């Protein structure tokens, strides 16, 4: 027990300096007091004891005084090489005269587009460097998708030792394949950032594949694809909805089937093809100047041109994938079985409209209003399952309302309960007082205007605008200003036009993931009401 005024310090704050205790401990650090434990497969057959509980084979013996006296220095016990990433310059750069409140486009060429923002909030000797390397070859088919993944996994594997030293000095990087190419970020102390970035880009452009590591990483990738079947039903539901709604998306089965065709020569040829034509879009944000940012971008371009002979993409190749548009009054149901878990999963998606200031706020305010009642009704009262979620879903510039549930109950029952809940929300909003409605607006506004607590969080918000190609860096202020003009009638109209069971512009997709032991499941059905929880009646759904 600690009194309240000592809770933070507890046993960690040492108030009395006791040099005698320090000397006593140091005096015990002698060879005759040491116990050495060595674990290795090489000791198999050389043990003489068995541990009682786990059956572990081991041997115990004393180290003779003679061995201690004749012990030589071991060359492997030495200080590491000098860490070139340890920062020495922690100067906070003064704000430039032309510093902007939001990221500014400081370079726009056929090869690259550079957004820059000098930090004016956190004033730390740090920066975030984000790059998207856009290539049409990265996701053209499952084979190319696999090769892009393996290329970057092998590249990261080869950088492990180098990146470890950087990590110790407060520098981290992330490198991954995307449906549009490659994403690279370098975050941390800005003093030596350019050294790590240059090493990564050089390695990327001159990479030589190690055959043994290729086989090991390819095998690990196949295991990860196979492990997908063991993921939770609600995760499967989200995965299948993405496949259904995205213009181009490859399934796990398609990736597995194509993986056998990935050979070392084919991967080498692919890397050259991938780097042959690129468009780079970047955001450099933090304790750096515009001139330094332009220099970093030029270094990236020059390195790729010199080593990989990279050329710009054609403007017509800079095309993003689209979302499937659902027809008015359309309802589509997709069913799959989870082969491992004995729970069902469901994701119900009501596609509303393209993202815009007005549509964003209609959707977010509606989600704000139904969030607590949804959890209270479907999870607490009806006890449908531990995982019950409602909220906006956004992808490829299109958005909508989604419900995600994982439950022992069948998907068509979950479907009916979501529809029943939505129907009750119409009257709930109609009967809501103006004071309660304004509280929802205020709660959403406070959440949206909450300032990022870290440089990396602020950078992530800006980067989201860039990769979505919406570039609305002042989104929070603009949308909250619009939010405050909304009325209760606006939200009721939003519901009646897009979400109600008879809404003229209702667009619905349901993904039903069946439990392992379910042979089949109807799409819709009638269910007896359980009086103990006073279930609201489900509206009749189209057969």
Structure at a glance:
Helix content is 40%, strand content 18%. With 543 residues, the chain is an alpha+beta fold.
What does this entry look like structurally?
Strand 3 and strand 4 (112-118) form a beta hairpin. It is built from 16 helices and 14 strands. Helix 3 (142-158) packs across helix 9 and helix 5 runs parallel beside helix 10 (290-308). Strands 3, 4, 5, 6, 7, 8 and 9 form a seven-stranded mixed beta sheet that branches. A five-stranded mixed beta sheet has the order 10-14-11-13-12, with helices on both faces. The chain is of the alpha+beta class and 543 residues long. It is 40% helix and 18% strand. It folds into three domains: 14-61, no CATH class; 104-317, Cytochrome Bc1 Complex, Chain A, domain 1 (2-Layer Sandwich); 330-514, Metalloenzyme, LuxS/M16 peptidase-like (Cytochrome Bc1 Complex, Chain A, domain 1, 2-Layer Sandwich). Residues 365-463 form the Coenzyme PQQ synthesis protein F-like C-terminal lobe domain. Residues 2-257 form the Peptidase M16 middle/third domain. This is Insulin-degrading enzyme. Belongs to the peptidase M16 family.
Helix content: 25-40%
Strand content: 15-25%
The largest sheet, given as strand count, sense and whether it forms a barrel, is: 7 strands, mixed
| Low-pLDDT segments, ≥5 res | 526-533
Q: Give the rounded overall mean pLDDT.
A: 94
Cα distance spanning the termini: 63 Å
List the total number of helices: 16
Report the CATH topology name of the largest domain.
Answer: Cytochrome Bc1 Complex, Chain A, domain 1
CATH superfamily of the largest domain: Metalloenzyme, LuxS/M16 peptidase-like
| Principal-axis shape | globular
CATH architecture of the largest domain: 2-Layer Sandwich
Question: What is the radius of gyration computed over CA atoms, rounded to a whole number of angstroms?
Answer: 29 Å
Helix and strand composition category:
alpha+beta
How many strands?
Answer: 14
* Total individual domains: 3
Question: What is the CATH top level name of the largest domain?
Answer: Alpha Beta
Domain Coenzyme PQQ synthesis protein F-like C-terminal lobe: 365-463
Keywords: Hydrolase, Metal-binding, Metalloprotease, Protease, Zinc
Family: Belongs to the peptidase M16 family.
GO biological process, one term: amyloid-beta metabolic process
């Amino acid at each position: 027990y600690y009194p309240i005024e000592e809770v933070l310090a507890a046993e960690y704050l040492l108030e009395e300096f006791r040099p005698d205790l320090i000397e006593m401990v140091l005096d015990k650090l002698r060879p005759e007091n040491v116990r050495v434990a060595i674990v290795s497969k090489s000791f198999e057959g050389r043990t003489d004891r068995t541990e009682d509980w786990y059956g572990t084979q081991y041997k115990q013996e004393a180290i003779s005084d003679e061995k201690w006296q004749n012990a030589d220095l071991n060359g492997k016990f030495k200080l590491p090489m000098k860490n070139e990433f340890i920062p020495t310059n922690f100067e906070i750069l003064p704000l430039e005269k032309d510093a902007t409140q939001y990221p500014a486009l400081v370079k726009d060429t056929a090869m690259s587009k550079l957004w820059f923002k000098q930090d004016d909030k956190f004033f730390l000797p740090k920066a975030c460097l984000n790059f998207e390397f856009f290539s049409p070859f990265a996701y053209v088919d499952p084979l190319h998708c696999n090769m892009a993944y393996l290329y970057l996994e092998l590249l990261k594997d080869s950088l492990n030792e180098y990146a470890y030293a950087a990590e110790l000095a407060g520098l981290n990087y992330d490198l991954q394949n995307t449906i549009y190419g490659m994403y690279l970020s370098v975050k941390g102390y800005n003093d030596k950032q350019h050294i790590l970035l240059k090493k990564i880009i050089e390695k990327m452009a001159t990479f030589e594949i190690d055959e043994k590591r290729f086989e090991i990483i390819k095998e690990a990738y196949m295991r990860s694809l196979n492990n997908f079947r063991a993921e939770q039903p609600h995760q499967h539901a989200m995965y299948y909805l993405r496949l259904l709604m995205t213009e181009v998306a490859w399934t796990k089965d398609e990736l597995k089937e194509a993986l056998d065709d990935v050979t070392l020569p084919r991967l080498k040829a692919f890397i050259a093809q991938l780097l042959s034509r690129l468009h780079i879009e970047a955001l450099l944000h933090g304790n750096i100047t515009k001139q330094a940012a332009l220099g970093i971008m030029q270094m990236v371009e020059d390195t790729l041109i010199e080593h990989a002979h990279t050329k710009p993409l054609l403007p017509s190749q800079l095309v993003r994938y689209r979302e499937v548009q659902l027809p008015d009054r359309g309802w589509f149901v997709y069913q799959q079985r989870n082969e491992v878990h004995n729970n069902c999963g469901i994701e119900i998606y009501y596609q509303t409209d393209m993202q815009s200031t007005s549509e964003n706020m209609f959707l977010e305010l509606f989600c704000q209003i139904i969030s607590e009642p949804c959890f209270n009704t479907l999870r607490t009262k009806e006890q449908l399952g531990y995982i019950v979620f409602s909220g906006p879903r956004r992808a490829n510039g299109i958005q909508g309302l989604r419900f995600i549930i994982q439950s022992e109950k069948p998907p068509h029952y979950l479907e009916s309960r979501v529809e029943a809940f939505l129907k009750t929300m119409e009257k709930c909003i109609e009967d809501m007082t103006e004071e309660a409605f304004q509280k929802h607006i205020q709660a959403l506004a406070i959440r949206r205007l909450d300032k990022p607590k870290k440089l990396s969080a602020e950078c992530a918000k800006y980067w989201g605008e860039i990769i979505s190609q919406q570039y609305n860096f002042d989104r929070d202020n603009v949308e909250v200003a619009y939010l405050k003009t909304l009325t209760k009638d606006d939200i009721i109209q939003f519901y009646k036009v897009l979400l109600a069971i008879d809404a003229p512009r209702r667009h619905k997709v349901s993904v039903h993931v069946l439990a392992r032991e379910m042979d089949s499941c109807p799409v819709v059905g009638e269910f007896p009401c359980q009086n103990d929880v006073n279930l609201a009646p489900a509206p009749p759904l189209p057969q």
